[in-house]
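[09:14] KT: can someone run the structure on this one? pasting the chain below
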Amino acid sequence: MKVEIDRSCTGCGLCVSTCPDVFAQGKSTVTINTDEIPPELEDEVLIAAEECPLEAIHID
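[09:31] RB: done, structure tokens below
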């Protein structure tokens, strides 16, 4: 599983609250802490993507 955050991200931090092992809060956006998502965190990442109010998280 690979995750990308597009430019529409406003840094609300909802994904950081949901999965802090993968997402990190920046000044005006969110960053991803890892290139590959560990299998044990995939469900949390999927929830974070579903909850994103701007649909800025894309999963491949």
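[09:33] KT: thanks! The mean pLDDT is 96.
[09:34] RB: yep, looked fine to me
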